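Putative periplasmic ligand-binding sensor protein
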Amino acid sequence: MTLGRIAVAVPISIGLALIALGCLLPGEERLIRENLPLETHITVLAPGADGTLLAATQAGELWRFDGTGWEPEEAGLDGRLVLALRGEPGEHAIGTASGLVSDLAPPPGNPRISDVLETASGLLAATPEGLWVHADATWHRPLSDVPLYRLAEQHREGRVYLHAGTIGKGVYSASIQTLLSPWASNSRGLADDVKALCFAVTEGGMLLVGTDRGLYRQAAPGETWKALAPFPPDRRVLALYRAPPDARGLQRLWIGTDDGLSALDLAETRDGLSVAGPLRSFDALWEPTETGVSWILPAPDDELMVSAGAVYRLSAVRYPGWYRFVLAGILLLLVGGWLWLGLNPEPDRDDT
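Tokens:
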């Protein structure tokens, strides 16, 4: 092969390889923004009927996402700021900055409701002044003078436990049988002034808590909390969602922080919980998220929806910048073609 033909073959070969590389590069999961018609901060995400998603906004409105678009939802909020929603309005109580929206009479004073939880024994409402429980057709106050933020229900070894995360006072807990009795502090192993911001429960019933100082697990109610390695102990955890076990038996724990969305795969046995693999992070597709990830929910087709100021969907997308490989490949093909024409000029035609 002559040097000229080599000079033609090299850019053409490299060009074809770059085009193939750009098309075959594996994709990765990234957060893609699902734009609401109204640009406003999302305060709550909740599951709706028939696989839809409900999003409450800072403007005091409620929107429904059906997988393709958004529609406003009438929920009788009258502009009130939603802080807690567990499901369909009308079927579930709504906690707002100015009280409870429900068929029930509100708690005395109609306080700010930071979270709600419906149990077999009554409705729980978390407030900055403590806990209210609606049972036996009246409101009870088993925990007072404690600023509550989040509530959780845990099923462990055939028993049901209830937990309240506080701002600055750790975790308080009670069994469902002692729901109306004073709740006990359940913060051994946590810092004295820790903020408990979110909960998750594993498949085997182990409790996880996200705090302003990292992520912790508790083997059984009342036992010592232990940090969940390798999660950084200085990172604030705003949201948790534990996915069902996969084919390998691993449970993926989705974690929302000020830095975005991350995940750990957990391996659980009857006696303990361990981390299987490194901490993974998931970036937004184009520009960083507006705020930290504060809500995480499963979506149809094995996808995930999160709120981080706006609403985002976690989806598999092409490798960022894949088109650059294709463009470079096309440019090299053109160069090779130009060199080939130089080696094979069009013969002059005889004038006859």
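The chain has a mean pLDDT of 88.
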